[in-house]
Write a structure and sequence with these properties.
The chain is an alpha+beta fold. It has one domain. The chain is built from two helices and three strands; from the N terminus they run E-H-E-E-H. It is globular.
Length: 60
């Protein structure tokens, strides 16, 4: 990940070029149920990069 602390949830989907191989609807459902930590700002849902690095195993 770059120097960004939060990234949009939609950019995590592999079909959109992201690192997580699952559907966008699954990501939104996981965020809604609390499986993914999120920071909602308006209509945008942001995910902390520490969680993405933990899930993908990429500790760069």
């Amino acid at each position: 990940m770059e120097n960004t602390k939060l990234i949009p949830l939609a950019s995590l989907c592999a079909k959109r070029g992201g690192p997580i191989d699952c559907s966008l609807s699954h990501l939104y459902k996981a965020a809604r149920t609390g499986e993914i930590p999120v920071v909602p700002i308006g209509r945008k849902i942001l995910v902390p990069t520490w969680w993405v690095e933990k899930v993908t195993g990429n500790n760069s």
